[in-house]
Structure to design on (540 residues):
C-alpha cells in the first residue's frame, strides 16, 4: 500500500511540479502569476483526446501534437491577454488571464461537451514490485516528466536561446537595448510554458478523467506547489509539486479522500506560517 | 554619425526635452553634462528608442526616430544605461554572448564569438577571471566593465554611456575612464552622460551642457573647462567666493 501510494504520489506530484514550472517560467518572464495555467492543462488534455480518440493516433504522438498545439495557444494567449496590457498594473493582467481562463473553459465545453472523457494510457497494465501493484501509467508519467524537466533545464541553462530567454526575463529594458525583440522572446517563453503544461493534461487524463473544470483544481494545486517551493524558483516548484502530490495521495488514503484539497491547503498554510519564503531561494539575490 | 534636430520628449504630460539639437561625428567623444533632472538620461533613452520623442534623429544617414529599440540596437547604436543593468542571473560570459545579438542578430546558436570575446577580455582582463561568475555577485566597477564589454560584443558603431562613474570609487573610475578613452581611440564614437563634469570634459573632444531640458552651452571641452560660468555651476570652483558643496568634486 505504501509503495503504491508513494509511486502514485510522486507521479501526480511531478505533474503538478511540471505545471508549476510552467507558471514559474511565465512569472519570471513577466512578473505575473498566470491564473489560466490550469486551463492550459485542461485544453492540452482535450487536444490529446482529439488526436488519440477522435483521429486514432498513437498516444505518444498525440501527446507531442497536443503539446505543440498548446504552445501555439500559449502564444495567442500572450498576444491577446498579456501584450496589450504589459504597461498596465499587474492586477489588470491577472484579471485578463482570468478572463482567458473562462474563455478556455467554456470553449472546451462548446467543442468537446461536458461529459468526462478519457484517453489511452501511455502503457497499459501494471507491474508488481515487492508485493505492490503499480500501474505502468504512473511509471510512464514519472519518466516523461523527468525527461521534460531535463530538457527545459538544458534549454534554459546550457543554450544560447536559453540565455536570451533568461536575459529577457531578468531585464526587458536592457534586452531591447542589446537588440533582442522582446515580443519574440516573451512569446517563446509562453510557448514553452503552455506546451509543458498542455502535455500534462494528456498524462493526467487516464487517471483523473478529462473535464472542462479540471484546470481550476490542477491550477490551484500547482499554485500551492509554487508557494511551498519558494516563489519564482524552478527546483522549488518541482519539490513543492512532489509535496502536494504526496500529501494528496497519502491524505486521500489514510485520512479522507473528500478532504484531499483541504489537506493540501493545510500544508500550504503551515508553510506560509512557518516558512513563508518557501524551500528554495532565488538564484539572483540582493547584494548585501 | 549621429545628428539630432529639435528633439522634444514627454514623460506623460510633462515635457522633459524642449527641442534639443546635437551631433556626434566620426570617432568623436562627446560629453553631455548637466545637473540631476536636466534630461540627460531622457535624451539617451529617446535616441535608443525606449522613450518616444518628436523631432529628428539621424544615425548613419538614416532617420531612426520611429524605429523600435531592438532594431536601433541592431543598427549598432548601443546604450550602456545608467545603473549598468547587467543580466543578474547570467554568468559574465553569458552576458557577453547575449550582447552579440546587437551585432549578429537573433539566432539559435551563438556561432563563433572568440574574436569578440578576446577583444573584450583584452580590454577588461578582470572579466576573463570572472567569466563563470553570476553577474549580480560582482562589484559595481566590475558590473560597469561587464556592461560596457557587453556593448562592445555587439560591434557598436556608436556607444552611449550613461553615468559610467556612478557609485564607483575614484580609483576604479580612473581605471574605467582609461579604458573608455582606449575604446574611443580604437575608432568607436562615444556620447557620454556624466555628472562628474571635470572628468567628462577632460576626456572628451566636445561637450554640451543641458539645463532643464535645453542645451545652454556647447563647444570644445577644453574651452568649456575654462568657461567661468561652467566652472561655477559644474566644477565647484569658488568663483563667487563660496564653495558649492552640492557638486561632486573629483578626488585626486
Amino acid at each position: 500500500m505504501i509503495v503504491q501510494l508513494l509511486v502514485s504520489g510522486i507521479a501526480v506530484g511531478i505533474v503538478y511540479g511540471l505545471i508549476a514550472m510552467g507558471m514559474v517560467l511565465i512569472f519570471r518572464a513577466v512578473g505575473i502569476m498566470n491564473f489560466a495555467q490550469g486551463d492550459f492543462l485542461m485544453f492540452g488534455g482535450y487536444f490529446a483526446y482529439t488526436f488519440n480518440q477522435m483521429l486514432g493516433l498513437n498516444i505518444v504522438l498525440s501527446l507531442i501534437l497536443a503539446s505543440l498545439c498548446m504552445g501555439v495557444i500559449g502564444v495567442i494567449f500572450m498576444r491577446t491577454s498579456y501584450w496589450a496590457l504589459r504597461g498596465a498594473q499587474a492586477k489588470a493582467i491577472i484579471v485578463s488571464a482570468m478572463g482567458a481562463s473562462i474563455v478556455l473553459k467554456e470553449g472546451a465545453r462548446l467543442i468537446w461537451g461536458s461529459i468526462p472523457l478519457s484517453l489511452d494510457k501511455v502503457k497499459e497494465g501494471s507491474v508488481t514490485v515487492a508485493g505492490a501493484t503499480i500501474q505502468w501509467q504512473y511509471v510512464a508519467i514519472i519518466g516523461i516528466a523527468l525527461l521534460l524537466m531535463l530538457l527545459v533545464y538544458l534549454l534554459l541553462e546550457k543554450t544560447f536561446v536559453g540565455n536570451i530567454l533568461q536575459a529577457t526575463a531578468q531585464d526587458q529594458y536592457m534586452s531591447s537595448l542589446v537588440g533582442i525583440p522582446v515580443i519574440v522572446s516573451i512569446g517563446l517563453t509562453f510557448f514553452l510554458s503552455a506546451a509543458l503544461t498542455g502535455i500534462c493534461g494528456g498524462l493526467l487524463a487516464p487517471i483523473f478523467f478529462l473535464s472542462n473544470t479540471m484546470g481550476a483544481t490542477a491550477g490551484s494545486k500547482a499554485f500551492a506547489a509554487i508557494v511551498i517551493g519558494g516563489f519564482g524558483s524552478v527546483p522549488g516548484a518541482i519539490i513543492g509539486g512532489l509535496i502536494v502530490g504526496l500529501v494528496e495521495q497519502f491524505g486521500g488514503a489514510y485520512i479522507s479522500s473528500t478532504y484531499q484539497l483541504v489537506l493540501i491547503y493545510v500544508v500550504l498554510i503551515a508553510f506560509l506560517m512557518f516558512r513563508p519564503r518557501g524551500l528554495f531561494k532565488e538564484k539572483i539575490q540582493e547584494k548585501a | 554619425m549621429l545628428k539630432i534636430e529639435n528633439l522634444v520628449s514627454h514623460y506623460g504630460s510633462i515635457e522633459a526635452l524642449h527641442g534639443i539639437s546635437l551631433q556626434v561625428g566620426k570617432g568623436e567623444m562627446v560629453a553631455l553634462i548637466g545637473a540631476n533632472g536636466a534630461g540627460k538620461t531622457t535624451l539617451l533613452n529617446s535616441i535608443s528608442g525606449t522613450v518616444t520623442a518628436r523631432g529628428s534623429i539621424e544615425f548613419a544617414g538614416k532617420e531612426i526616430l520611429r524605429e523600435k529599440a531592438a532594431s536601433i540596437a541592431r543598427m549598432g547604436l548601443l546604450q550602456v544605461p545608467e545603473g549598468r543593468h547587467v543580466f543578474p542571473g547570467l554568468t559574465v560570459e553569458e552576458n557577453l554572448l547575449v550582447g552579440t545579438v546587437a551585432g549578429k542578430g537573433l539566432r539559435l546558436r551563438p556561432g563563433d564569438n572568440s574574436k569578440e570575446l578576446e577583444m573584450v577580455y583584452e580590454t577588461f582582463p578582470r572579466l576573463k577571471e570572472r567569466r563563470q561568475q553570476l553577474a549580480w555577485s560582482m562589484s559595481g566597477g566590475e558590473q560597469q566593465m561587464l556592461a560596457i564589454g557587453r556593448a562592445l560584443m555587439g560591434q557598436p558603431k556608436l556607444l552611449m554611456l550613461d553615468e559610467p562613474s556612478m557609485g564607483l570609487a575614484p580609483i576604479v573610475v580612473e581605471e574605467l575612464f582609461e579604458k573608455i578613452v582606449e575604446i574611443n581611440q580604437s575608432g568607436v564614437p562615444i556620447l557620454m552622460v556624466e555628472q562628474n563634469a571635470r572628468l567628462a570634459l577632460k576626456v572628451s573632444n566636445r561637450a554640451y551642457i543641458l539645463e532643464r531640458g535645453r542645451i545652454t552651452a556647447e563647444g570644445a571641452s577644453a574651452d568649456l573647462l575654462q568657461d567661468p560660468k561652467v566652472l561655477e555651476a559644474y566644477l565647484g570652483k569658488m568663483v563667487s567666493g563660496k564653495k558649492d558643496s552640492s557638486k561632486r568634486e573629483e578626488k585626486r
